[in-house]
Write a structure and sequence with these properties.
- The chain has about 625 residues and is of the alpha/beta class.
- It folds into three domains: about 250 residues, Glutamine Phosphoribosylpyrophosphate, subunit 1, domain 1, CATH 3.60.20.10; about 190 residues, 3-Layer(aba) Sandwich (Rossmann fold); about 150 residues, Glucose-6-phosphate isomerase like protein, domain 1 (Rossmann fold, 3-Layer(aba) Sandwich), CATH 3.40.50.
- Helices cover about 35% and strands about 25% of the residues.
- The strands form five sheets. It has an eight-stranded antiparallel beta sheet, covered by helices on one side. A six-stranded antiparallel beta sheet has the order 5-6-7-8-12-13. Strands 18-17-19-20-21 form a five-stranded parallel beta sheet, with helices on both faces.
- Helix 17 links the parallel strand 24 and strand 25.
- The longest helix is centred in the C-terminal third of the chain and has 20 residues.
- The radius of gyration is 26 Å and the shape is globular.
- The mean pLDDT is about 95.
- Bound molecules: fructose -6-phosphate.
- The site of fructose -6-phosphate (F6R) has 15 residues, from helix 8 and helix 16.
Length: about 625
């Protein structure tokens, strides 16, 4: 949520900042801006809209400097307009700041500063911070250095921040600090970058340091030092090498990142599984949790917590873990869990699922569970992310960077890990080797299954062509596929703005059936497993009310055909692998519907990829 990129070094910062902002645009795209320091002055240029709008502005009136900070915004306080865009300047126009997060006590500080005659121009909480730094630097009786003014200001604010600041009176110095919002320092040859993630950095250096909460980095010409915000004692941190490739963070030949990432699933699910099978023994190897494996086996209960799509993965995780390992699992939205009087003790395991590893509510839920004595495990995609570092142990999904705002390959990777975890636990309990081998065989076949699914994209397009004008969609599934109905509906809502609901198929008659008429497309998830006859009956109920039936199944079936207006047949697979393959066809359907509706697929309105505020 909001992207930050900063550069200090020997190169022209403008193209580096602009390219970085383009790479970060998935984190927010309400407005963008950059501030540059040259020998004498600070220049700031910013504008509401996309990074391309900022680029046109800079093309018309070029600016230069030797170091700079950039920001792409997802608005929290203040509407998305030019004035509320970052960077924000203090009233002397000598200090510039970019901020990701929320300053919770901004109102109180603003009142005090206003009473001292300091004029404000924006509605943002971020401007308060830069004005406070300025006040402490220029007007404090203690004659604070710039660094001390930044430290002092940060100790007055309450909330979450990742910030980078520049000051005209301290040329050659860049200060960044983190509390609750991620920041990564890139350490290159005679140059440094700071990003809210590694994507704007990787082209220039692979050596990075992940800042932790309450840390501040000062970059001075050729050196950097990291200390705590509230003490100048140096904190020694090790450089981490990131193995991200440029191809992974670019669209290549695809029109959208979402489509690229849907197609990536031909190999990304295998990447997630690589080296983690033990076929002979019908089990899996998950090294990241080995120290805590016996605790999981003996746990009295497991909580799974997450948000959005990752929460849907959690619902499937519950189904799998209860089925294979017979341990009770509770799945909770992290935003609810963090404020609830949850029942946790040292026999409780908390599994947090997060693609980004930075979601504020999920992180808060982990911290709460830890405080209450639970062992915390993470299932994360981003290596080095806060959640992966704060949990006691975890499993990386290794699906590669996911840039499209609507999660696709990260979801199927999460499901893959949950299957592997459930199987591993189950094999230590009563699940037979044969059952384990069957499941593994199906997983190992998944690359071919995905290829087959992608091959029917013309059929999916045809469904979209005839249904894209609908105002509402219903998604029905049963058992382990009910969360897939929820996920299919979420994908559609996010990128096509069609209202959609996921429902357990049998629940439909307790209310939503009232909505069904000849204009309502109903996506029916109908694998030919033991639930088939039940879902068939539910499809009949929709048919009787003239709903438009779009059936997803895994075998041609003669009772389904006459009932369905459209039928999409995906490869037959293990019933616990079907949620993965089924979610891919639903991703394709949402994508094609959004294409027909001419929506901004990679940058849906009001959304951002990584939700680092509460
Ligand atoms: C939907 C989507 C979101 C995320 C949610 C959690 O397509 O991407 O619902 O799943 O914001 O994000 P992570 O997994 O990064 O914690």
């Amino acid at each position: 949520m909001c992207g930050i990129v900063s550069y200090i070094g020997k190169k022209d910062p403008v193209p580096i900042l602009l390219k970085g902002l383009r790479r970060l645009e998935y984190r927010g795209y309400d407005s963008s801006g950059i501030a540059l320091l040259n020998e004498k002055t600070l220049h700031c240029i910013k504008r509401a809209g996309k990074v391309s709008d900022l680029e046109s502005l800079i093309d018309d009136s070029p600016i230069n400097g030797y170091c700079g900070i950039g920001h792409t915004r997802w608005a929290t306080h203040g509407e998305p307009n030019d004035i509320n865009s970052h960077p924000h300047l203090d009233h002397t126009k000598k200090i510039a700041l970019v901020h990701n997060g929320i300053i919770e006590n901004y109102d109180a500080i603003k009142e005090v500063l206003k009473s001292r005659g300091i004029p404000f121009t924006s509605d943002t909480d971020s401007e308060v911070l830069v004005q406070l730094i300025s006040e402490l630097y220029y007007n404090s009786n203690q004659k604070l250095s710039f660094e001390d003014a930044v430290r002092a200001a940060l100790q007055e604010v309450v909330g979450a921040y990742g910030i980078v600041v520049l000051c005209e009176d301290e040329p050659g110095t860049m200060i960044a600090a983190r509390m609750g919002s991620p920041l990564v320092l890139g350490v290159g040859e005679g140059e440094f970058l700071i990003g809210s993630d590694a994507s704007p950095i990787v082209q220039y250096t692979r050596n990075v340091i992940y800042l932790d909460d309450n840390e501040l980095v000062i970059i001075n010409d050729d050196n950097y030092s990291i200390s705590k915000i509230d003490s100048k004692n140096i904190v020694t941190k090790t450089l981490t090498r990131i193995d991200l490739t440029i191809e992974e963070i670019e669209k290549g030949e695809y029109p959208h990142f979402m489509l690229k990432e849907i197609h990536d699933q031909r190999h990304s699910i295998s990447d997630t599984m690589r080296g983690r099978f033990n076929l002979n023994d019908g089990t899996t190897q998950l090294g990241g949790i080995s120290d805590y494996f016996s605790n999981i086996l003996l746990a009295s209960r497991i909580y799974i917590t997450a948000c959005g799509t990752s929460w849907h993965a959690g619902l499937i995780g519950k189904h799998l873990i209860e089925e294979y390992a017979r341990i009770p699992v509770h799945v909770e939205y992290a935003s609810e869990f963090r404020y609830r009087n949850v029942i946790i003790d040292s026999n409780t395991i908390l599994i947090a699922i997060s693609q980004s590893g930075e979601t504020a509510d999920t992180l808060a839920a982990i911290r709460k569970a830890k405080e209450l004595g639970a062992i915390t495990l993470g299932i994360c995609n981003v290596v080095g992310s806060t959640i992966s570092r704060e949990t006691d142990a975890g499993i990386f999904t290794h699906t590669g960077p996911e840039i499209g705002v609507a999660s696709t390959k990260a979801f199927t990777a999460q499901l893959t890990i949950l299957i592997m975890l459930a199987l591993k636990l189950g094999r230590k309990k009563n699940v037979s080797k044969k059952r384990g081998k069957n499941l593994i065989r199906a997983l190992r076949h998944i690359d071919q299954d995905v290829v087959s699914i992608l091959k029917i994209s013309h059929e999916v397009k045809e469904v979209a062509k005839h249904t894209y004008e609908a105002d509402n969609f219903l998604y029905l599934g049963r058992g382990i596929n009910f969360p897939i109905a929820l996920e299919g509906a979420l994908k559609l809502k996010e990128i096509s703005y069609i209202h959609a609901e996921g429902y357990p198929a049998a629940e439909m008659k307790h209310g939503p059936i009232a909505l069904i008429d000849k204009n309502m497309p109903v996506v029916c998830i109908a694998p030919q497993d033991e639930s088939f006859s039940k879902i068939l009956a539910n499809i009949e109920e929709v048919k009787a009310r003239k709903g438009i039936i779009i059936t997803i199944t895994d075998k041609i079936n003669y009772s389904l055909k006459p009932l369905s207006d459209y039928i999409l047949i995906i490869p037959n697979t293990h019933k616990h692998v079907f949620p993965i393959t089924c979610s891919i066809i639903l991703q394709m359907l949402a994508y094609e519907l959004a294409v027909f509706r001419d929506c901004e697929i990679d940058q849906p309105r009001n959304l951002a990829k990584s939700v680092t505020v509460e």
